Structures are given as structure tokens and as C-alpha cells.
Amino acid sequence: MKDFTEESLRDQLELACSARGMSAARARLVHHYSNAVFVLPALDAVVRINVGQTANAIGITQEVTRWLVNEHAYPATAPVEDAPPVQLDSGLTASFWRYYPQPDDGPPFRSAHLADLLRRLHDLPMPPAELPKWEPFGALRRVLSQGAPLPGLSDEEVEWLRDRVDAVQHQIAAAHWPLGLGMVHGDGWAGNLLWDRDQVMLGDWDNVSLGPREIDLIPTWHAAIRYGRESSWVQEFADTYGYGMGRHESFDLLLQMRDLVQLSGPLRRAGESEPHLAALRQRFEGIRTGNRSQSWIGL
């Protein structure tokens, strides 16, 4: 996408920091996928730049994480105080968060870490903020709604993908959820775990919402099918959380949903990055053919 190149993002970073009286000096890009994350070492902060989310929506996300940290001592990433999100003219939004330096040789995260944090989250009461309703394909629909052709996909493939998203969302709307509805993280996978000294914490709260709790569990099973995670990873998660997804009546439907969600990031960057284009093609073809035997390229 034109507005998501590193050069353009740095311009937007400068604007956002200027709006909050901060310096973007020595900013370091540490993540560039569905969103972008810059570290501001002089301020012990990070700036997240998001596509398609309003400053108001991200403000709600920050309200939730403050409540988690301050009222429940929950290990969530916390926003920088007195630095509300900045809505940029480009359609991007910048938000400011505390920086948690990660150890070079820290112990690996385990699925039990993730399961414990999700179990604790799901056991909490509803926050005082008005959570948005969970939207399974918000980011993907925003990419698909572009008027211009999408890099890496033909017009026919884009139409097929739109129809597929509609069909899966229709089935999700009619699904039964044994674990009930409540506050969900919305992207509960191990890549969102961080170390805060010797404590494991959960980050990337962009998708916190009101939805079925199962959607926070399915990424672990999806990781085993699409990214080669071993069976012990899944079993440890199920044992720690106290629920296994393998026999869930909507298990295959949720796998289809997670498959489609995994197209958003590669679609956003396929026009500028060969690895993202390769990942997009592999994932799209695996989804369309129903092939689950090949491990996907990680990004």
C-alpha cells in the first residue's frame, strides 16, 4: 500500500510526535506488518501506527488497558499518560505506549503463558469502557474495499475472496459459542507476548472487543496446522486454559476465519515486499484449494 511504506510511515511518525510535543529523534522501526511500531529510545516509549482505526477507537483500547493494569493488576501493555492518539490526515492513527525492552537471551515463551493470560482475561468482569462488538474481518474488509487493484491478486481472485469472507461471516453469525460472550483480546497468539522483566505480559490490544471467547483460543490450534507448532504446544495450552478446541462444533469454521484473517498483513505490503507477496500467494492458494498440508511462510 502506498501509505504504508517505511518512508511514508516515518513522515507520519514525525507529524504524530510533533502533535504531542515529542521528539522522533533516533526512532527505530521494529515492526512493519498489519501495523507499524517505532521505538522512541529517548522517551522510553513506542508509537504504533495503525491503518483504518480511528483515534476514538484506539482511545477506548487504551482505556481498557489502563483499567486492566490499574484495577486488576493484569499484565497488559500500558499507554503513555497524557499522550492521546493522533488522527493523521493520511487515514492512519498513531498511539503512544510504554516501551518494554526485550531481553536478547530471554527464555522462550510457552503456550502455557498465553493460555494463562487468556484464561485470566476471560474471567474478568466487563470493563467500564464500551467495548466494540467483535468484527472478524474488519482489517481484511478495509483492504478489500480499496478501489485500486490489489497487488498479488487478480480481479477474479479478489471477487472470490470477497465472496468467501461474506460466506464465512454469515456462518459465524449463526454459530453457537459454548464458552459464551465476553471481553476478548481478539488476536490471542504467542507473537503478542512480551517480557516485562521476569513477568510475561500480553500486548497488541487493537482488537479488544465483546465476542465469543473461542476466538482467542483458535490461534493456537491454527498455529499447529499452518505454522508447524508441535502437538505438545497445543496440549499444554488446552491443559492450562482448561478447554480444548479440537472437538468444538465450529472448529473448522474458526480455522477458516483465522486463515482469512492471516491475509490482511501480506495484502497490505505485497506491492512493496517480495516476501509478503510470496506469503500472500501461498496463503491464498492454500485457502482456495483447501490445502492444509503445507506449512505457511512466517513473517
UniProtKB/TrEMBL annotation:
Supply the Gene3D superfamilies for this chain: Transferase(Phosphotransferase) domain 1 (1.10.510.10)
Protein name, UniProt field: Aminoglycoside phosphotransferase family protein
Domain Aminoglycoside phosphotransferase: start-end pairs: 44-248
- A Pfam family of this chain: APH
